[in-house]
Amino acid sequence: MRPTTLSVAVRSLRVSRVSRASAYQFVRFNATKVNFHRPDTAGSDDPSAAADATATVLADKNDSQDIPNKATWIDALREREKQLAEGKVLDSYSYVTPKTYDVGEKTRSESFTYLNLPFKDDKWLCDSYINAFGRLRAGQLFQDLDALAGRIAYRHCAPAEPVNVTASVDRIYMVKKVDEIVNYNFILAGSVTWTGRSSMEISVKGYAFENEVPQDITEQTLPQENVFLTANFTFVARNPITHKSFAINRLLPVSEQEWIDYRRAESHNAKKKMAAKDQGIMRPTDEENRLIYDMWNSSKALGSSSKTRDLVFMKDSRVTSTLFMQPQYRNRHSYMIFGGYLLRQTFELAYCAAADFSSAGPRFVSLDSTTFKNPVPVGSVLSMAASVTYTEHIHEGPSDIDADTPFNFKLPATNKISDNPDAFLSEPGTLIQVKVDTTIKDLSSVKAKEAGSFIYSFFVPKNALGDNNPGYCSVIPQTYSEMMEYVSGRRRAQDTALFVDTLPRVH
């Protein structure tokens, strides 16, 4: 059966009659002409039709009320208390049986799903996605990306209904600038591109259209030249009864490009497994040892009196935030927090750190590979700490380098200025890498657990406006552990540069 789209139309917004918070929720859930590519009609018991509780602006409120396998928090809470009284642990309220254990084959087109965000056509929808500088508020989009990936995962697994969770975000990268989002209609679209026994990689791309959006939206009708964002997620399937891994449908590539994407994802997953085995082992190379010595030599005489505005000690770049996890941000299984919400919150803190560090409005460039180490329960306390761990100066040439800076040593940039005027790194400036470490503490425990580390990269042009005229900002590591963080950041910057070289060239 051909997928259909869901359309929601409502009366005009009257902000004067509601509080600021409720007005925001009204906009997010009731934007005019928001379309979502649905596998079935409203009221279907297809799990891919059920959205995360507050995932997107897309009519999730309608989903939560109409889809049979959705539940209010009070229903889920009472059921969990009942099960605990019987000595049982309930991981999911809505998914209690996988329904079938049959494993078949599915093509990419069968999981293909898209989301329409018509910012150009809907000023109120645009208003809920715009930041203080009139550009895209990326944290809002991260929620949509993760929710979209979740729907794709459930469509691929159907008719089975395992518990699918986000295991990792392998990369989110802004291919080009889309500064004036009010002039564009966005499409987010993706599908499953690789499967293992119980895991799957989901690739999502963002498309920006200044003119008409294609009427018949398929993977083939979305032009590559309109891509502004790429994202890759890994989801894993678990049996809701045994809590063990659950075998999912195999992906069947049917074209040359699909086979290329499949092999790429296969290679990437093999590298991830090797990296997991070497976790914690990060011996610096000879070149990196020289870098550490040069940093120490440059920073040892740099006291607070000689430090300038554009030089910041790593320890002084730290910002923190603590949040209580409320049920309004739960995932479709009811008891854990939606991964997209964690992405949004960690991004917002990273943005604060980069903005405070540079005294300018940073532009999001990429989110590096991130693994969700532990699920975040509803009712727990989430603590986040963000620090600038690496900076890189993008120069036009040797003459552009300021030789008089007190923190100066020979360090070739891993990235270079792009000849594409729409690219973020198309002008001189500073690449700022921010690491956000997260921990969770259940109220019944005295010990906190790691939830994951999120690495965001931002770009600040050299000529960015601001009271401090940021120029080239530099973070200064002082201790050996900080220098190792700096080295790790440089490695990630190198990986990102290599990734950019693999992207299709659009002329």
Automatic annotation (TrEMBL):
Determine if Amino-acid biosynthesis is one of this entry's keywords: no
Annotated GO biological processes are:
acyl-CoA metabolic process
Give the record's keywords alphabetically. Hydrolase, Repeat, Transit peptide
A cellular component annotation (GO) from this entry: mitochondrion
> Where would one find the signal peptide in this protein?
none
Q: Which CDD domains match?
A: BFIT_BACH
Show where the HotDog ACOT-type domain sits.
115-241, 315-439
Q: Which GO terms describe its molecular function?
A: fatty acyl-CoA hydrolase activity
- Asked whether the UniProt record includes Electron transport among its keywords, one would answer no
**What SUPFAM superfamilies does the database record attribute to this sequence?**
Thioesterase/thiol ester dehydrase-isomerase (SSF54637)
Matching InterPro entries, A to Z?
HOTDOG_ACOT (IPR033120), HotDog_dom_sf (IPR029069)
UniProt family annotation: Belongs to the acyl coenzyme A hydrolase family.
> Which PANTHER family does the protein's record reference?
ACYL-COA THIOESTERASE, ACYL-COENZYME A THIOESTERASE 9, MITOCHONDRIAL
Quote the protein name from its UniProt record: HotDog ACOT-type domain-containing protein
Q: Which organism is it from?
A: Meyerozyma guilliermondii (strain ATCC 6260 / CBS 566 / DSM 6381 / JCM 1539 / NBRC 10279 / NRRL Y-324)
